[in-house]
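job 3f2a | input accepted
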Amino acid sequence: GKLLLDIGNKIPKSFSLALSRRGIYQIFYRRPEVNLKRKVGIAVKEKIKAISVSGKKAIDNTIKELQSIELPTVSSNRELVESQVIQRIELAENLVILPAGEDLEKEIDIDQKLVMHDDSEKKTFITLYEENLDMVANLFRQFSNTSVTNVDGGVVRTIAQNIVAGLMRNRELMMVASSITLSQNYLVSHSLGVTVAAINIGVAMGFSKSQVLSLGHCALLHDVGMLKVNKNLRNKGGDITRQEWNEIKRHPGYGLDVLQKISGIPVEVPFVVYQSHERMDGSGYPRGKKDIVIHSYAKIVAVADIYNSVCSARPYRDAMTAYEAMEQLVLMCGKKLVDATSVKAFLKCNSMFPVGSWVELPNKAKARVVAANQKDYMKPFVTLIFDENGRKVDHLFKQDLSESDNLVVTKALSRKEIDSVDIMEGF
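job 3f2a | predicted structure (427 res):
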């Protein structure tokens, strides 16, 4: 008895999902002097059924598909020796990787930006992410154990597949789940957070499934060399000495040593582990390489690494807001420190007010950013959570800020300015 869609309105892609949740799998509509063809009705019905498949089942089905993709892997440990990697980089005239194969983003075609997700769907993503944090923690423990000489590379592939599959199911829920951290293990949380951000960037740049899977391996392993840096130095608060900084800058080389424990890693991984701290103007380390002789995946991982790092509280500084982190990346583009194409792709999928962050509206109400808006990076999709009086809103719904000139973000908020809420609140 409720009007779901008024005459004259456009039918959004999210409408079929809204219907399926009400148990409606078939609809009839009337168009003047035009008959609805049966094949169109069947197509609509199948689409609704595909969308309504439970989150876990959909993710598991995608993982099975990803498992069949072959990735070129490192053939011998010789390719992981630092001197050999340096030689290959020095001989390379161009390490730019272009999108090849079917664009993965075309498969992320279920527009759920205006849909309020049920608790079971959100729980699926929290569980998925927590399971992957546990797998990364166990993987890094094996890397740190000097008595372990052979680590199963299939674990890294499993983690990469899980993140890609989760993103294909729901990009926004995967991104907000990545804010879950292990308070006692920054390196684990950082590595998986960088993986989610890097994969999102790669998808937004038009890379294929196999390329994005390889990128996921690279992102997850990009900082494994830090496992060989003294833990006290890794977590040191305050200023560090020049000698300590030189030790930290050796971790890309240490990373190649760690990789020799693992089998079946994609051929791009050594380049990214060694180059993810290079900068476009040559001011990075360890070799001071510039522009096209920095591997494309390393440029993407560098952007994801900076973003995740500055958004995380460390012993020597507070965390930036997500908006401040994006602002810093844009400023670094202007200084030609990071790859502009990667940052633009990150804006495309994350906006200037990143997914999961909090913002204030003109009337002092507080809202949660729930999706990027490719029409306007400054006007994302939001859910109003607290009204102008600070009271929690009873009925939550998502809205596109670009649909009104009066709906603007007046301020980015930090978590400290928000009353305690569930990690998936607003989604």
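job 3f2a | Residues 14 and 112 are 5 Å apart (CA to CA).
job 3f2a | closed
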